[in-house]
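Quick log. Single chain, no ligands specified.
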Amino acid sequence: MGFRWVLRLVALVLVVWGIAGLASGCAGGKIGEKQALAPQARPGAIKVYTSFYPLYDFTKKIAGDKAEVINLQPVGVEPHDFEPSPQQVADLYRGRVFIFLGGTMDPWAAKIQGQLKKDGVITLEAGQGLMVNNDPHIWLDPVLATEIARRICTTLVTADGGNKGYYEQNLRALEQKLTALDEEYRQALSGLPRKEIVTSHAAFAYLAKRYGLEQIAISGLSPQEEPSPQQLARLVALCRSRGIKYIFFETLASPKLAETLARETGTGTLVLNPIGGLTPEEVKAGEDYFTIMAKNLANLKKALE
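-> predicted structure:
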């Protein structure tokens, strides 16, 4: 038993060293200074870690009080910028389940998934097989979000079969809310005269496809993929020619480019939140996936009327 423990400890140290280089560049090195989303611990509950906010929110809604769900991504940190600290990686080995999206959203997770599984941690790559063109923003489509929720429920049941009925009951409630959200978006957006949405980065392709919209993105799949001056000039001309009324910006990324485009085209600005994470103000206000999606819909209607 002692020798086996030494082997596990050595493996953990190697994994932590391997990810330390990644962690050094994230969020300005201030991960430890911000508080991650984590509920009060409940005795006897399984410990479940998630890589970023949408997975945390869905997992918490399904797990209820039967699991301690901890989001590694700190409040106020843009998910494309986030990589875990060595301490957070070490914490994963003390959990029962680790849920991540996969693809370009949390590429650090794939690097440690294999060792976590060897050490007995149940892992779920929630977005596997759902992404198109390497675009990770699948949670913004309520239909794809439903599939993510189902996969999360299956994983929780695998980890904690004694609470199978509880998890499945909560999943049904979540599915009903997502179905209602999908229908609300369909009804609200189907009859609007405009279809173009100019977004600060290319996070809304799945939502646009689901509801017959056209996404015109200022930046690429990550907010850090800024356009060239020539691309920005083409966007200005496009917005003017199509009579765009509003440019959308985000809460966790710099609004500089969206504001520049709005100023050059004489348009207004509105928030279209990709819900990659919450601001401290949103946490304090009790916001979640559904309240933010409702605000997004209101702003979409205003922009497309």
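Residues 126 and 147 are 9 Å apart (CA to CA).
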